[in-house]
Hints:
By secondary structure, the protein is mainly alpha-helical.
Amino acid sequence: MIFGLNWFLALVLYVLIWWITLFAVLPFGxxxxxxxxxxxxxxxxxxxxxxxxxLLWTTLVAAIIWAIFIxxxxxxxxxxxxxxxxxxxx
Length: 90
């Protein structure tokens, strides 16, 4: 158990957060190629995508977001079982 979550659920949650974070991090620092393709006029992929750096940043940011979620869930600050987010009684 990882702070009240089983290890599989915690892993799935981290993978989902990592995947969403990847798409948020991908555009940072990208620059298009200087000259478009002569045949099509398309610029295509960026000059230097720096994927290694982006994967590292994605992993770091996802770990921070995941840790914040685990703390919030563990402390009970947000609960779908009690409080104003709970389902109404039948």
